[in-house]
């Protein structure tokens, strides 16, 4: 079956703490070698960046705040440093087929459980 797994379902942290490689994404979908990371909050859905095999492509506005590592064909971990109140939200990943010859073909499988980063003071 084609599925993407993500753990844990919930993370609760205090402001100022970090989420260090605690949000994990994995898949075993053949020919899907890109993992994309997203954040959803009251402002909508935002692409944080993606991992194409072992090459990292974070969005410019999250560099230094959010990072990820891994191998897009298998797994990735997300890190969020020095949490602020606006870092709360739903973080999730997706796996995508990557082809140099057909860049319009995108097959996305989202996760079963969605981690929420909640903050306490």
Automatic annotation (TrEMBL):
Record keywords: Immunity, Signal
Range of residues in the leader sequence: none
An example Gene Ontology CC term for this record: plasma membrane
GO biological process, one term: immune system process
Domain Ig-like: 8-112
UniProt cross-references to InterPro entries, sorted A to Z: Ig-like_dom (IPR007110), Ig-like_dom_sf (IPR036179), Ig-like_fold (IPR013783), Ig_sub (IPR003599), Ig_V-set (IPR013106), TCR_beta_variable (IPR050413)
Entry-linked PANTHER family: IMMUNOGLOBULIN V-SET DOMAIN-CONTAINING PROTEIN (PTHR23268:SF102), T-CELL RECEPTOR BETA CHAIN (PTHR23268)
Protein name listed in UniProt: Ig-like domain-containing protein
Phylogenetic classification of the source organism: Eukaryota, Metazoa, Chordata, Craniata, Vertebrata
